[in-house]
Amino acid sequence: MSEVIKQWFIKHMPVQEDIGLHENKAFIRWIGYPLLAILVVVIAVTWNLFETGIYSFDKEFEISFVTLNDFAKYYAFPIASLTVPLTFGVMFNRFHSSKQKAKSNLLVEQNNSANNFFNHYKYFAEFCESLSNDFFNKKENIGPEILYKKLFPEASVVHFTTNANEKFIDDIISAFHNTLEEYKNHLLNTELKTVSSLQETGYFQEVETIVVNLFKEPFKFQFKCNGIYYEEFISSPSNFSGILQRIRNLIFMLLHFNGISNHQLLIDNFLTKFVTLEKNFKTQVNIDQF
Questions:
Q1: CA within 13 Å, CB half, 14
Q2: ∠ CA(123), CA(125), CA(126), 5° rounding?
Q3: For residue 289, which of 55, 153, 237, 255 is within the disulfide window of CB 3.0 to 4.6 Å?
């Protein structure tokens, strides 16, 4: 029964904070219904007074201390009941103001969250462009939109966070693993040829012989993960390690972005897993080919 009454009040007597107090139909009901009930009581009391002959149209209308005292005595209950709609009106006004304040605070919080989100992404995009120019001389190698979404999957306009997703590191390590596997397969399926060349060194024009191992077929180095893309054809095994370390340094610098609150955790996790991956790979291939 109490639940039915509660639902009736929620449905028919709601506090609508989106509109003004005077436009709330429930506000009129909260005041009007008690006033209507008081009016019924007044009519009933008056009817009874006329029936008992206390009041009569035949009597002369008079305003005096006695008549006013009688009026206060007969209508004491309806007069006292007038405090009920007044109390309801004050309560409704307080509820309305409270809900408006809460909604205003929520809108301010959402606005601040949206501004923080867009500013955070703006600085992140500029940081990515700077890294791309430093490492690749091309901004197309880093897609900040995809990278930001992968690094901060829980961040949005309504929910801003600087806590990066740790799964991002697992995806990066998986991409490194795929690149190393492709390189290992290339080593197994492609022969090396040795090329010697003479090169002057020092100030006395001394000449030394440089021996370089080259692939008969170049290796297509390709790294693609979470908005980071790099591709280059490698003709010599000696170039592979350098490019791999360049990508590794790029990720390392990316994780130093000031807008990542848990950056140290991600950096430690990345370095540990990368060193383990690199160590395991070196045990599988000739160290001179890495």
A1: 8
A2: 65
A3: 237
